[in-house]
């Protein structure tokens, strides 16, 4: 009985630690701003950190900030900015594809589904240089 209790405590502790682990991914992709007319601007060197119920986006043109998860499943996680709900994104767990968008407050015909900004790229696990 004591051994079973110890095993259960270890499994619970290990599971809790795994949920708090920070996953950091380096990202590169393209940015478009439909209000200014800038399209497909290359953006490298950004990264995302996934931890707990949050996703932090750093050095990604137009989308820096800390977001909260609103949907998770085996295929990916989707998140939304807590203060400006027009900023949203999804990260595919299998391919690393990251899509970020800012929805338009007033959608205009022909504007890529009513978005003001889009960022589309791929993220890979960050690796130490040495």
Account of the protein in words:
The structure is a single chain. The chain is built from 1 helix and 8 strands. With 130 residues, it is mainly beta. The termini are far apart.
Question: What features would you highlight for this structure?
Answer:
globular; mainly beta; 130 residues
Written as H for each helix and E for each strand, in order along the chain, the element string is HEEEEEEEE
Shape: globular
Structural class: mainly beta
Total helical elements: 1
Strand sequence of the main sheet, in spatial order? 1-2-3-4-5-6-7-8
**Amino- and carboxy-terminal Cα gap:** 46 Å
Helix content class: 10-25%
Sheet-strand content, in percent, reads over 45%
Task: Give the overall average pLDDT.
Answer: 84
Rg calc: 18 Å
Q: Which residues form runs of ≥5 with pLDDT under 50?
A: 1-18
Count of β-strands = 8
User: What can be said about the biggest beta sheet?
Assistant: 8 strands, antiparallel, barrel
The gist of it:
By secondary structure, the chain is mainly beta. Helix content is 15%, strand content 52%.
